[in-house]
Amino acid sequence: QVQLVESGGGLVQPGGSLRLSCAASGFIFSSSTMSWHRQAPGKERELVAAITSTGGYTNYADSVKGRFTISRDNAKNTVHLQMNSLKPEDTAVYYCNALGPRGTTWGQGTQVTVSS
Questions:
Q1: Most exposed among 18, 30, 95, 114, judged by the fewest C-beta atoms under 10 Å?
Q2: How many whole angstroms from its chain centre is CA 16?
Q3: For residue 96, which of 39, 57, 11 has the smallest C-alpha distance?
């Protein structure tokens, strides 16, 4: 019942942009902290960005600060990650995460590849 579905990944050239989306269902989205994580081959999964339930606070990894923007629309149960000025080192599988009263939920992930 609890489900997160990511979309928007793909292949983009360095310096380009992508907008990831995460559609949530089966839980009280408006009470959950949402975040995006990524995992590149041979590397640990890392936090990319997080946003509190009301959207009043956001947090970003130093490596993406100033380039990525996380946002949410509680009326539509969606969270987005706008990624600008993409670099090859941004290549990874990106996962949506929800942290709420009943625990943590992960999406299936969407591949982002930055290459010329």
A1: 30
A2: 17
A3: 39
* Closest C-alpha to 83, from 71, 73, 72, 74: 71
Query: If we measure between CA atoms, which residue out of 66, 31, 28, 63 comes closest to residue 48?
Result: 63
CB 79 within 8 A of CB 53: no
| 8 Å CB contact between 66 and 50 | no
**E-assigned strand segments in the chain:** 3-7, 10-12, 18-25, 33-39, 46-51, 58-60, 68-73, 78-83, 92-100, 103-106, 110-114
pLDDT tens by residue, the chain, 116 residues = 789 999 999 999 999 999 999 999 988 888 899 999 999 999 999 999 999 998 889 999 999 999 999 999 999 999 999 999 999 999 999 999 999 888 899 999 999 999 99
Q: Are 15 and 74 in contact (CB under 8 A)?
A: no
